[in-house]
Design brief:
Elements: E1 4-8, H1 12-24, E2 28-32, H2 35-45, E3 49-53, H3 61-68, E4 75-80, H4 85-93, E5 98-101, H5 106-119, E6 130-132, E7 137-140, E8 145-148, E9 151-153, H6 157-168, H7 176-184, H8 194-206, E10 216-219, E11 223-226
Parallel strand pairs: 1-2, 1-3, 3-4, 4-5
Antiparallel strand pairs: 6-7, 7-8, 8-9, 10-11
Helix pairs in contact: 1-5, 2-3, 4-8, 6-7, 6-8
């Protein structure tokens, strides 16, 4: 079954251009220029990924992301004409997986979509579940599952990629540049600070109880590391 992409873009020429490129690559494509209709399509059709313009005539793209995240784990690639870093950071904090700034190449959009889907495909080396911190955290790559203190945690593909990268070598400090390139799977030209947004979201999900160990540690001026040892 073909992967389904929902393109949400109010400029007809851009919308149809993206549809043409995506269908050429074998994707099934739905499209709309309305944020409200995008939410309904995401609910009814359950697409695998949304390509979402932040500037829509009815519902802001940020609001669409927030609403879709209530009922869907679909990946989200934002299209933005906003040049400010804070605008892009805000979108990532809401749960978007990546962004492309206008004007863009349709081919770049396709490549980024493919990279996002690869990150979330669950393709992994396997070898069974790995336990950390006396069972505080369990990572099952084969099942694409993270379990914290006995409860599974729903993660976006990028959050999963960050956590997985940190568990490769517990205690090793990964710079933001290393993390964003490992997670995205291609050379990323942009703001390394986007990693901070994903780590913030990840911590919110895996460190909800302050009485327990810190799972992701910040090393000032250097990056991040896993704060748990691998169980033997």
């Amino acid at each position: 079954m073909a992967t389904t992409v929902l393109v949400v873009e109010d400029e007809v020429k851009i919308r149809e251009l993206l549809r043409s490129y995506l269908e050429r690559e074998g994707f099934a494509v739905l499209s709309t220029g309305s944020g409200a209709e995008a939410i309904e399509l995401a609910r009814s059709a359950q697409p695998d990924l949304l390509v979402l313009d932040l500037r829509l005539p009815d519902v802001p793209g940020e609001s669409v992301v927030a609403e879709v995240r209530r009922f869907s784990s679909a990946r989200v690639l934002m299209l933005t004409a906003k040049s400010g870093e804070e605008d892009r950071i805000r979108g990532l904090e809401l749960g978007a997986d990546d962004y492309v700034t206008k004007p863009f190449s349709p081919r770049e959009v396709v490549l980024r979509i493919q990279a996002i889907l690869r990150r979330g495909s669950g393709d992994a080396a396997g070898g069974g579940p790995q336990s950390f911190g006396s069972g505080e955290l369990v990572i099952d790559e084969d099942r694409h599952l993270a379990v914290v203190r006995g409860e599974s945690v729903e993660l976006t593909p990028t959050e999963w990629g960050v956590l997985l990268a940190l568990t490769r070598v517990p205690g090793r400090v990964y710079s933001r540049y290393e993390l964003i390139n490992q997670v995205r799977g291609y050379e990323f030209e942009g703001y390394e600070r986007t990693v901070d947004s994903h780590v913030k979201n990840l911590r919110r999900k895996v460190e909800r109880d302050p009485r327990h160990a810190v799972i992701i540690e910040t090393v000032l001026g250097a990056g991040y590391r896993l704060g748990l040892d691998r169980d033997r």
